[in-house]
Structures are given as C-alpha cells and as structure tokens.
C-alpha cells in the first residue's frame, strides 16, 4: 500500500528554520576556513577543525529540523538514536577531510575539486544515513535518478562554498556565500526527499526507536549551543570579521613555498661597506 508522504506538516516553518541553520553553520564554517588561511601553520588545524564542526553541525541540524515536518499518513515515525548521531559524525568527518585539503593545498585546481567532492559526498551521506535511521511500518524506496541529482547538488554546493572561502574577500563575501550554500544544501535535502516513496506494510507490529520528540531536545540544544559558541569566536575576532589578509606573510599562505626574505640581506649589504671603512679609519692612527 502506497503511503501518503507530507514533508511540510508545519507549513513553511520547518523549511525556513532548517535553511537558517544551514546558513548559520555554513557562515561560521566558511569564516573559520578563511581565517585558517590568514594564520601561521601552528594555528591552522584548530581553525579548520572548528570550521568542519560548524558546517557538519549546521547541515545535520538543518536535516533533522526539516524532518520534524515529515510525516507519513497511516504510520508513526521513530528514529534510531545511535544511527542518528552517527550521521552527525559522518558529516563532520567527511566535511573535515574536504576542508583540510583546501586549507592546506589552496582553493584551486585539483585540491578544490577533491575537497568539494569529498565535502559534498559527506553532506549526501549524512542525509541518507539520517533517512536510514527512520523506523516505520513500511518500506522506503528511492528514485535513482533523483538521488543522483541530489548528490550532484551537494557536490556543486560544497565546491562553490570552498572556492568562496578561499577568496578571502571579507565578511560580506562569506555571508553571501553562506546564503547560497544554505539554499543549495536545503535544495539537496528536499530533492532527496522528492526521490522517496513509502510502501506501507499495513501490519500492527510496533516500530522501535526514539520518537521525534525525544530527539528534539538534544538535536537543538547540543549542536545549536556549539554553533552559538563558534559564533562568539567569530564575533570577537576582528581580523576574521574584516577579512584582511595583509597581515599574513606570503610564506604562510598555502601553496606558496617559504623563502628567505630579501630585505634582511639587502640591509646587510647596505651597511657593511660603511662599517668596514669606519673601522679601518679608526685604526689608522694607531698603526702610525
């Protein structure tokens, strides 16, 4: 029996809140990625890890906020708690791999393509692993073509966002990129949901797992608290808000090899002859 699927049980409330969470996580993650390109090698891993956690938490929260409005007529929906939070770990780890590649190799060429692909696959993996955590009296089936389109959207959105992070053009540039990223991630989510069809079993067997209400508190309190803390870090970092790359030596930028500054050697060449002449002149009367 075909189940009636409704992804907008609360109207536009859940899509708008989900979009906001995706934009918030994307904005913080992109600013942290940008900041990592403006600091020395010792601080870079910390900023990249913070950016990975922000983007992963943002898209994970976006997914399950949107799923609060997802219902199937004729059967209750429950969620497996372990698999639900495993999808969060997958999102953070795979997004982190992509961000670290771009953070150390630069947002261009092969590094950008590889990082964007891995990050996009992480977003898609989080989505479908989160869908697999659902438990209901029925069977989930997906349209292969639509699933492929959703994965392509995720990869394209991730690549564009990482490219924007590598431009280092200031705070407003990253805000615009996060809005586009949030729209693309939300579009990927609802494209993936459009590929879903539910076939009900019609049995009276109870489903197992956590209810949406029991997952709502940790889902909102945990990742949202982390995103707020990450936002505080961004707000109180003036270099991060202004996005000024001038304070960073060229040697510390990814993809540019370190070299010995020329100014120091020129300084020595300029004053060495003068010191030699003065030194000899001071010793000439003593030799006489």
UniProtKB/TrEMBL annotation:
Domain MHYT: 10-199
Keywords: Membrane, Transmembrane, Transmembrane helix
Domain of life: Bacteria
GO cellular component terms attached to this protein's record: membrane
Membrane spanning residue stretches: 12-34, 46-70, 82-104, 111-130, 142-164, 171-195, 215-236
Region of interest: Disordered: 263-288
Family annotation (Pfam families): MHYT
UniProt source species: Streptomyces variegatus
Protein's UniProt name: Membrane protein
InterPro entries on file: MHYT_dom
Compositionally biased tracts (Basic residues): 263-274
